[in-house]
Every structure is written in structure tokens, then in C-alpha cells.
Amino acid sequence: MVRACGLGLLLALLLPMVGTSMPGTVVRINKAALSYVSAIGKAPLQRALQVTLPYFLDRSGEMLQTTRIQILNVHVPRLHLKFVADFGVRLLAAANFNFKVFRAPDPLELMLPVVLLADARVAQGPIQTPVISISACYSLFGNASVPDGGNSTSPALLVLLQKHIKAVLSNKLCLSVSNLVQGLNVHLGTLIGLNPVGPESQMRYSMVNVPTVTNDYISLDINAVLFLLGKPIVLPVDATAFVLPRHVGTKGTMATVGLSQDLFDSALLLLQKAGALNLDITGQLNSDDNLLNTSALGRLIPEVARQFPKPMPVVLKVRLGATPIATLHTNNATLQLQPFIEVLAVASNSAFQSLFSLDVVVNLSLQLSVSKVRLQGTTSVLGDVQITVASSNVGTIDMDQVHALMGTVFEKPLIDHLNALLGMGIALPSVVNLHYASPKVFVYEGYAVVSSGLLYQR
């Protein structure tokens, strides 16, 4: 993994998360993120600036001497980052370099203050990943001093040493920052990797345009493509451009991530096409509280009792032919499922016999959350489950009597199955080692917003 300076860490946090048009996410990295990045970026920047110096040619004596100079350490007491509108990010770092000059007979230690200025432009790469480049970099040097206050060093030698160090560092420091950023581009390339949704389905993100930069935030666009068995999932109608309003989520948060209706529709369509929402519900025949048997049905449907004088297991085959519908209103997210249920009984020859089938409409409350980099959901039933008879091989069915039984044996397994799927979640745009910290999810009309801090872990 490439070591990252403060600027590199900022851009690693910025670029994985984005806004898009089909289906879309809009992510803004706000000013609050800069203080965090400045704090965690000092140590990596110090390591990156600890470069190797060539030997110093000492002409101060009667003979020409070569003297080794080593950077003992670099301390960065100040690292400041800010957004520059229509450009990118500007870095200002104050660093103190401590050197050891291996000069006979007594080594010499020097301290040299340096101010480093760098401007980084963020662009879209040829493979639709973020690409960072240093467009300008300057090193401003102060005056070298002897930390121990010794007076044995001649002023003329000190001037020559300082001139030599400045000449070397003026190129090396900016080259180190540039190399660091170039290496970071490889790290940012992990944005386009496939993220699993299910056993046979994945998501892939890619940038769709250049970032929007203001003095207050950077906003990037990413397109989310979902795949089933290697084939992209396409919404049946053209998705519309998603525009995230300015003041949403939590004020002063590091990251504001807008998730459009299209993203929810696309993810649900993927789950439906993959058959992940289908399930078979069975019961234990010998269990005292098992209602999935022909005896329980026979008490409500006489024809079932006639055809099955002995208790036999019953299976509910739940299939979702229609795509689930997510609806996002302010402070309220709901999910509607329209499963088709075929009720089967095991005959004496172990073959399945269809008893009847049902059309069902289930309205669910949807709660959203984020864990690390995954958007997750949990559901609970809203109101009554609507059940109507689609077909019957056991004569007339009184749904007033059957409704309570079917709701009892159907609702909990369905909710458990659905919550297990939604609990696995789908990956939000990210690069490796990046997590969302203390995220909160807000629901608005037609979209959801994640307000979150950012946590970069090696």
C-alpha cells in the first residue's frame, strides 16, 4: 500500500464516493473532513519527506572533503488543507527538518524550517477512475540553525551547508509528493472493483464526469452498475438525473451521501431477478405448534380434510414475480412486496399436490442503516397482509377463516428471510481501507441521505 500524505489521504476519502445519474449517488466531502485529514496526515507526510541527500563537497578547508548529510527526522507541526473552487485541493505544510552532518572531527546537527505548498487537481481517468495530479508545488526555506547553540561552526560553512540542502530539497520534496500522489492513483483504482451483492450478483462503480469543486466541498459522480451472472441489470424506464439539495443531512458532517430512488429500484430489481427473494416455508410435522399440515388446513377447508384424512406436511412456495417497490417520503421509507404463494401438500407417494394458490400484497416499513461501507435495511409489516385466492383445487375457500392462519405461518418467515438479505446490504462507493464513521441515515422525498464521518484504516 502506498504511503499517503495529508493531501493523498484527503483525496482517498473524497474520490471513492460520488454522485451520478443512473442509478445515482451524490457525495459531498465537506470542510469538516479537512481537520480530520490534517490530523491523520501529518505522520505519513513526515515519512514521505524524509528523503536521501547526496554528499556535500566541503571546500572550506585546504583540501576538498566529501561530507555525508542525513535527515534524522522531519516534524510537521502544521498541515492545512482547503478546497479551491473549480480546481481541487491546496496543501500548506510547515515542516522542521533535523539534519546530521558527519563532519570530522565532530558531527554537526542542523535544523531547517521549510514551508511546502502544493496544488492538486482531480480529474477523470481513462478507465473512469479518479486521477490526481500535482499542478504546482513550491518549497519555501527558512534559515538553518544549530539546535545546541554551539558557536564552533563557522558562519561561512553554515551558509554553504544551507545552500547545498536547499538546492537538493527544492526538487526532492515536490518529487516525493508527486510520486506519493501517483501511487495513490493505483489505490483509487480499487473503486471500480466488483462488490458482491449475492452469490451470483455484483455491483461496480465508475466515475461519470469530473468532480465539482467549490470553496465548501468537493462533489463527485459515480455510476452504479449491477450485474447478475455477468449481465448488467437495466431499469425498465430511463432513470432521471439526481440532484442533491444543498442543505440536507447533519450540519457540519464530513460526508453527505445522497442515494437516489433509482439506486433502490435497481438493487431491488437485481434481487428479484436473482430469485433471492423466493423461499419455501415448511414446518415440522410432529411439532405441537406446527400449523403447516393438512390437519390445520382441514379444519378450515373441508375438502382438504377429505383428501388428507391423515396429517401430511404442507409447503408454501413463495415466489416474487413482480419487482418490490420502494417508496421514499420524508422521514418514511416503505417497501411493497407482491408474492405469489402456492400451497402444496405432500401426498402419500411423497409427491407434491397443489391445494390452492394465493396473491399477496405486503406493505413493509423500511429502516436504513450503514455499517462500515454497506447500506443495510430491516423491515416490519405495516397493517394487514392482503391475501386473495388466485386458484383452488380444494373447492371454495373462505378467506376470512384462512387469512389468520396464512398470515401466521407466512409473515414471520418472510420477514426473517427479507431482513437477512437486506442485512447483508449493498456496498456504497468506496476504496479499500475506507469506512463510514458514526453514520446517520435520513429519508427525503425520492432519495435518502447518509451523513457520516470518515475513518481511514491501514
From TrEMBL:
Encoding gene per record: BPIFB2
Name of the protein this chain belongs to? BPI fold-containing family B member 2
SMART domains xrefs = BPI2 (SM00329)
Query: Keyword Signal on this protein?
Result: yes
Q: Record's superkingdom?
A: Eukaryota
Family membership noted in the UniProt record:
Belongs to the BPI/LBP/Plunc superfamily. BPI/LBP family.
Which Pfam family, just one, is annotated for this protein? LBP_BPI_CETP_C
Q: Which organism is it from?
A: Trichechus manatus latirostris (Florida manatee)
Q: Where is the Lipid-binding serum glycoprotein C-terminal domain?
A: 249-452
